[in-house]
Every structure is written in C-alpha cells, then in structure tokens.
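Exercise 7.
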Amino acid sequence: MRTIEKGRGYFRGTHKGATIEIERDMTHHRRAFYIIVRWTDGGALYDGWAPESVRTMAQAKREARAGAMLDVAAKAPAEAA
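Solution. The predicted structure, written as tokens, is:
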C-alpha cells in the first residue's frame, strides 16, 4: 500500500490500482472509521463504515483491502471436462 497523505485519523493511498481513503470520525460514540475505495475508473469498491470491531487505523487499512477484495488472487476458470 502506497501512502499519498496521512494525518491524525486520516489516510489516503493506493493499492493495486485502487485509491483508498479512510477517515476516523472522532465525534461518533465509537470513533468509527469511514472507508472509501475507488477503482481507477471511479467505481466504488467499498464505501461505508468499517465494522465496530475495527479500532485502529491499521485494522481499517486491512478492512479496506479485504472489503474491496483487492488482495483476492485471481483464479483460473475451471477446465471443461
């Protein structure tokens, strides 16, 4: 994951062609993370609140990659019998 910009409670970067933006909402009672992942054509791969179990920025980055399925290996189609 390449970092473009980061600050307290904020991250913007790229991973495998997608742009990832994460913002921590400190006003929310659980200090939730809002994640936006967009592909190069602008299509949203993930746009929403991270699960309540996500408590750190590192966890939010992992959730962004997993939720947008950026680390899923491409599988070859099954061979015809």
